[in-house]
Design goal:
The protein is elongated and about 85 Å long. With 460 residues, the chain is of the alpha+beta class. The strands form three sheets. It has an eight-stranded mixed sheet, sandwiched between helices. It is built from 14 helices and 16 strands.
Length: 460
């Protein structure tokens, strides 16, 4: 089948005027008055659809075409004609319409507006709905832009394993991977009988392996799926998500925060440039202030505050929070949003957290109480990245691991990195779905990932 892409017709309209073209795709709507009608057709090559004009005079199968249902696939031949007096700049005047596959009246996606909850129940069809078509198109472009940013800065993209025998964060709930017969009753599983000879889990991060590569290439990033088994049912958590994690040698915390700010402004600037139709759609139908908010991020200098100073501000407003804070307590989403939305009114880095509430690998400050960590908080969402300088001192790292009851034998190779040419290095993790939520204005993480994996939800 030789067909023209709808995207190409929009981009090079003059080349197609009065030329016979063939388009194929899926019907979004069909309306008729018995003598002529209009089909709105999409083929997936762009967010826009094309309008097809068909008439009883031209089509021998008019009576069949005028009854075509939403979701049906068709092939149409005709000529492109300019229509400057209408909303669309042109239309295809059909000379023939071939029905490839017709849906019936049970097709779930009708023209009426469906709830997001309903659309999650038909996740295999929802990419055809306008909202999700726009979301997943932007998701694709955002991934490309992130790769582009790090490629332009000389980073090496490394692919880290999805199976792990250790927990990088030292406290995550992980998915166990086993080759043993889990249905055999009263069986005690011996790790030595496993395929790998030990307990193995789905990895929540590629950071540790990424650090090993950073000591070879200087600047690396990983980008792939991560898994956490928490039984969490919030709008910000899924059990399978995508994770971007750069690691940079000879970089301290200040350099890391500069890199994060540059990256955020780069991706938002380029999404606005490269996805104008989708972003205008989000701004009109999802979040009326979206474009203004994104431009505010692009044009703002990100704020900086230490954890200690942030706690002092929050303590003065404890009566406003569900979870009052004290020094040493974790900062909840409500606190993150207060700092970014009320105090700074822009993105803000919170630095130098107590070591007890952060991961074992973070570099300890001279005070012995805090670590060189930074969380980037965005208005409207809270934390979008978490990063730190990494501990380079072998003895300090080992001591902290023992405090947290982490087994040295599980991390022997990671410790050895501190003996074999260790240098100052830093890194951060970006939850891909979370920044996608911010860019699109979509409020639930389940609606920015194709088939969300959440508690009691793994059907598709």
């Amino acid at each position: 089948m030789i067909k023209s892409d709808i995207k190409s017709i929009y981009e090079k309209t003059n080349d197609f005027i009065k030329e016979e073209v063939t388009v194929a795709g899926w019907v979004k709507s069909c309306r008729t008055n018995g003598k002529f009608g209009f089909i709105e057709l999409t083929d997936g090559t762009c967010f826009k659809s094309i309008q097809i004009f068909f008439s009883k005079e031209k089509l021998s199968n008019f009576d069949i075409v005028e009854k075509i249902n939403t979701g049906s696939s068709i092939l149409c031949k005709g000529k492109i004609v300019l229509t400057p007096e209408n909303k669309q700049p042109f239309e295809l005047q059909a000379e023939s319409v071939t029905i490839i596959n017709a849906t019936d009246n049970e097709y779930p996606l009708q023209k009426k507006r469906h709830s997001l909850e309903f659309l999650r129940e038909i996740a295999y069809l929802r990419p055809r709905a306008n909202l999700f078509n726009a979301v997943f198109r932007v998701r694709s472009k955002l991934a490309f832009i992130l790769h582009e940013f790090f490629e332009n800065k000389g980073f090496v993209h490394v692919h880290t394993p999805l199976f792990t025998s250790s927990d990088c964060d030292g406290g995550s709930e992980l998915f166990r991977v086993t080759t043993q017969n889990i249905y055999e009753e009263n069986k005690c599983f011996d790790p030595k009988d496993e395929l790998f000879g030990k307990k193995v889990y789905l990895s929540p991060t590629g950071q540790l392996e990424g650090e090993a590569c950073a000591f070879a290439f200087g600047k690396i990033y990983t980008f792939g799926p991560s898994f956490r088994a928490e039984n969490s049912n919030t709008t910000r958590h899924v059990n399978e998500f995508w994770h971007l994690e750069p690691e940079v040698c000879f970089m301290d915390l200040n350099g890391l925060m500069d890199l994060e700010e540059e990256m955020m402004k780069y991706i938002m600037t380029n999404i606005l440039k490269r996805c104008p139709d989708e972003m205008n759609f989000f701004n009109e139908f999802v979040d009326k202030g979206l474009l203004e908010r994104l431009n505010n991020v692009i044009n703002s200098d990100f704020g900086h505050i230490t954890y200690t100073d942030a706690i002092e501000i929050l303590k003065k407003n404890n009566d406003k929070f569900d979870y009052p804070v004290e020094w040493g307590s974790d900062i909840q989403t409500e606190h993150e949003r207060y700092l970014s939305e009320v105090v700074f009114k822009r993105p803000v880095f919170v630095t130098d957290y107590p070591k007890e509430i952060k991961a074992f690998y973070m570099k300890q400050n001279e005070d012995g109480k805090t670590v060189r960590a930074c969380d980037l908080l965005f208005p409207g969402i809270g934390e979008v990245t978490g990063g730190s300088e990494r501990e380079t001192d072998y003895d300090k790292l080992l001591s902290h691991m023992k405090e947290l009851n982490l087994k040295e034998e599980d991390y022997w190779w990671y410790l050895n990195l501190r003996k074999f040419g260790s240098v100052e290095h830093s890194g951060f993790g970006l939850g891909f779905e979370r920044i996608l939520m911010y860019i699109t204005g979509v409020s639930n993480i389940r609606d920015v990932i194709l088939f969300p994996r959440t508690p009691n939800n793994c059907e598709f």
